[in-house]
Design brief:
This protein is an alpha/beta fold. Helices cover 42% and strands 21% of the residues. Strands 5-4-3-6-7 form a 5-stranded mixed sheet. Strands 1-2 form a two-stranded antiparallel sheet. Helix 2 packs across helix 5. It is globular.
Length: 165
Amino acid sequence: MKSKITNYLKEIALFFIVMAIFANLVSFYKSSDINQEPLKNITFTLMNGSIYNVQKGEPILIHFWAPWCPICKIEASNIDFISQKYNVITVAVQAKNEDAIHNFLAEHDVEFKVFNDKDGFLAREFKIAGYPTTLIYDREKKLLFSEVGYTTTLGLWVRMWWAGF
């Protein structure tokens, strides 16, 4: 009986290892076309009406997501947690309307800064191929990390901490 349980646990562990490797390969492939240029000084008019200017001196995380995306829903609390300590701008793409974005934020109880990319201009400019996509820039606005798909809170926190050096 113990050997059956041990075999099942080994199979489950192997499954998760293979899936993690597969997910990282897919992320690497999808992020290979992302715009690698340093982040320009851009200004975002957020959904709450405030203006946010990207400036040198602090790392920034730019997170592209869509209200219909199931992985974005799972990852929303991770992004919200990181946004409480670091500079985070989220870019809502492919939203049917602003109500869909507001509903997403309320449903997931998140308060991160949101730019509504109504026409998909920023997504095209950054060459985003899938959602969610997270970009982390260092103090000089050079792209350090790009991730397509789910990222843990710890993974985001470590990358933002690293970008702050």
